[in-house]
Amino acid sequence: GCNYSYCSFYFVSAIYELSCEAYKHLGKTSNYYWIDPDGSGTLGPLKVYCNMTEDKVWTTVYHDLQMQTSVGGNSPEKLSVLQLNYSATMDQISAITSSAEYCEQFISYSCKMSRLLNTPEGSPYTWWVGKANEKHYYWGGSGPGIQKCACGIERNCTDPKYYCNCDADYKQWRKDSGMLSYKEHLPVSQVVVGDLDRPGSEAKVSVGPVRCQGDRNYWNAASFVTSSSYLHFSTFQGETSADISFYFKTSASDGVFLENLGNTDFIKLELKSATEVSFSFDVGNGPVEIVVRSPNPLNDDQWHRVNAERNVKQASLQVDQLPLEVRKAPTEGHTRLELYSQLYVGAAGGQRGFLGCIRSLRMNGVTLDLEERAKVTPGVKPGCSGHCTSYGMYCANGGKCVEKYNGYSCDCSKTAYDGPFCIKDVGAFFEEGMWLRYNFHSPGTSAKDLVSRTLLSSADPEITAPDLSLNKEELSFSFSTTKSPCVLLYVSSYTPDFMAVLVNPSGNLQIRYNLGGTKEPYNIDIDHRNMANGQPHTVNVTRNGRDIILQLDHYPPTSYSLPATSDIQFNSPKALFLGKVIEIGKIDQDIYKYNTPGFTGCLSRVQFNQIAPLKAALRPTNASSHVHIQGELVESNCGASPLTIPPMSAATDPWHLDSASADFPYNGQAIGDGVNRNSAIIGGVIAVVIFTILCTLVFLIRYMFRHKGTYHTNEAKGAESAESADAAIMNNDPNFTETIDESKKEWLI
To answer: Is the pLDDT score of 648 beyond 50?
Structure first.
């Protein structure tokens, strides 16, 4: 904000943005920032915390009330008043809440023999005071006019006769808490606590900061589709000071942004040419014009910001981050801008109007509602004619919507998909012995390029490629095969670290991590689903630090955790292999075994973080130089994502190994009717003996695997007894009982 005496300071350095949203679009990251929500209005700047981690930015304003502030304890006073002092004035916070899409504030009341809202019919003992000093008798998790707490709304209060846990008046500690989200009432300025005058009455109050999300003013926009289109508003009141700011984007080379006329006085902003913006006005001393010239075209269909200010001392114009143009006012003469006509945004008085989009138009700190006015005005559309706003959701699987004047397109380059909407799987058929290697860095690629292209996590672009390390990975792909064992995917490194996705000899999927710190690699075994059944299967693995989430086909995601001793950095990733691992140095023994003869089948839409190796191999892209292929890679959708139908049951699945014949085909002649009984009896005895030996072997192997620690989730050696490991499996795996039944079936045939 500013007043006349120090407005000139703002011309010299427009240092404050209007909101956190504006800082985000300058490429800033989460931090404390000064914002000035009403521009040159009277409010002045305030310091807030801007959280940029989500699509919509959160703006947070803090106060000085400690969490869990104790009140009462045999207090003789009837009421205890807790005052909250914010790092901003109530008017400043109101400016934030009114332009936000959503606001919330956490509030909590912990009680021991201290009633809260005195539900269902009594008059409340405790209330809070919000904006405009209004008292409110609802609590967090509830809404205006409903004298209830969250448990009353959800019908899960400790005592169902009451609508708040605290209203049951128990001698044990209870709590009512939740979010206040009716933003017209926020922020909380006071909490008044009543029921504290009895022996044993105690309470603790917590109030969180005010958090607001989104900025409706920042995106309030209108599209001018003909050069005679305009919106009109009431006369601009800017006699002694004017502060006008907005964003525009256009592909036209000229047009009037806005104009307001008086008898001879006027104020006007226009795009004079593809590289010039003009601010002109007359306060009675003759017309004054300030022009900012841009070295680059401004009609590039990208957003540009204009800020024009005028007071009795001087006037200024700024476009984007270009140098500020300032013009001093004459020392003598008129100073008041006297306007009578309506304010025209767009074409005025037969002039060629602006073609394109204008948004976030603020005049003296007030955002004009362009969208509402555009809804009832021919030739102007509410919102921006940018098609991505309407159709961006059709760009699937991480595809990026790209604006075009007569439509839009989807940029699928950072995805493992193809096609106009990034929904076509890019996949291939692998013949036996074929493999693909994707090098994370190739000769002649700087580490900086590597980091930016693949988004492997590194904050320092100066470090060399082998020094990169990952704290998290996201891997997704689909595959189909009928042969096991095999290596589906393997990520190697310049250290012993690796990650692998395997199909073991029984056709079960295994994810294997070796990040150091443990004697054996950490395995996740999915023992109860045969994946080598010729059907397409999808695999999604996300690791963040120690936490791993695995999702298979349409089954619910399952969480796992690396052992406490394991490192959580995947150090110096080197290359990604599909189908087979051809890597120098020592290779894990099982993986070495599974490597022969190699994977036969289909792989599709493989994506590791920002890398799509199959797509790089099959589509000429910048990344194609990273790919090396052994054998002929044939594009195919045979491994494309499966339909979301439940898997076949063991009884009907032709690939399920549910009979001895699947493992041990009978090589002799078929036993006919004429075969003698003795051979049949001898055969029976032999079968029983073999069966007994097999059973013994199975239990021995199972016992060994339990203690070896590779059963299911590969607990650290000797960390827990087999019983507790089983208990853990049963707790974690809802399909466990079904698993035991299936394995019994399998071995008892």
So the answer is: no
Structure token digits, residue 505 = 């000899």
**How far apart are the C-alpha atoms of 311 and 316, rounded to whole Å?**
9
Residue recorded with tokens 């010729």: 534
**pLDDT of residue 562 exceeding 80:** yes
Tokens of 677: 């009984």
State both tokens at 541. Answer: 């693995």
Q: How many CA atoms lie within 13 Å of 726's alpha carbon, on the beta-carbon side? A: 11
Residue type at 1 in one-letter notation: G
Rounded distance, CA 354 to CA 369, Å? 18
Report if residue 578 sits inside a domain.
yes
Regarding beta strands 80-83 and 202-207, do their DSSP bridges make them parallel or antiparallel, or are they unpaired?
A: unpaired
Asked whether 168 and 195 are in contact (CB, 8 A), the reply is no
Question: Cis omega (within 30 of 0) on the bond before 199?
Answer: no
Taking residues 269-285, report their average pLDDT: 90
Please, which pLDDT band fits residue 589 given cuts at 50, 70 and 90? confident
Q: Is 159 exposed, middle or buried (0-12, 13-18, 19+ CB in 10 A)?
A: middle
List, in sequence order, the alpha helices (H) in 355-446. Answer: 370-375, 387-391
pLDDT at 725: 38
How many structural domains comprise the chain? Answer: 4
Neighbours of 124 (CB within 10 A): 21
265's tokens: 């006085």
pTM, two decimal places = 0.50
Rounded mean pLDDT of 623-643?
Answer: 78
- Split at pLDDT 50, 70, 90, the class of 198 is confident
**Would you place residue 371 in the very low, low, confident or very high pLDDT band (cuts 50, 70, 90)?**
confident
pLDDT over 90 at 52, yes or no: no
Average pLDDT of the segment spanning 641-665: 40
Long-range contacts of 593-596 (CB under 8 A, 24+ apart): 593/485, 594/485, 594/486, 594/487, 594/502, 594/503, 594/504, 595/487
DSSP labels for 514-545? E-SSSSS-EEEEETT----SSS-EEEEEEEET
Judge whether 434 lies within some domain. yes
626, 518 Cβ separation under 8 angstroms: no
DSSP state of 17: B
Residues 241 and 149 in one domain: no
> Which residue range is the domain that position 400 belongs to?
387-415
pLDDT in tens, 697-733: 767 766 555 544 433 434 343 333 333 333 343 344 4
Residue 275, SS3 per DSSP: coil
Provide φ and ψ at 200, rounded to 5°.
90, -5
| Strands, E assignment, 347-430 | 356-363, 366-367, 380-382, 400-404, 407-411, 417-418, 424-425, 427-430
* Maximum pairwise Cα distance, the chain: 129
On whether the CB atoms of residues 655 and 529 are closer than 8 A, the answer is no
Q: With CA atoms as reference, report the closest residue to 490 among 638, 419, 594, 564.
A: 594
Residue 433 has pLDDT above 80, yes or no: yes
Same domain flag for 562 and 493 = yes
Same domain, 180 and 309: no
* Backbone φ and ψ of 219, nearest 5°: -105, 10
DSSP state for residue 646 in the 8-state scheme: P
The domain that holds 277 is classified in CATH as 2.60.120.200
- pLDDT at res. 720: 38
Angle between helices 736-747 and 722-732 (to 10 degrees): 110
Both 144 and 252 in one domain: the answer is no
Please check whether residues 288 and 255 belong to one and the same domain. Answer: yes
Segment 734-749 shows an average pLDDT of 37
The residue that leads in pLDDT, 94 or 388, is: 94
User: What residues have CB less than 8 Å from 87, skipping those under 6 apart?
Assistant: 46, 47, 48, 61, 62, 63
Quick one: what percent of the chain has pLDDT higher than 90? 20
What is the rounded distance in angstroms from the CA atom of residue 95 to the CA atom of residue 89?
10
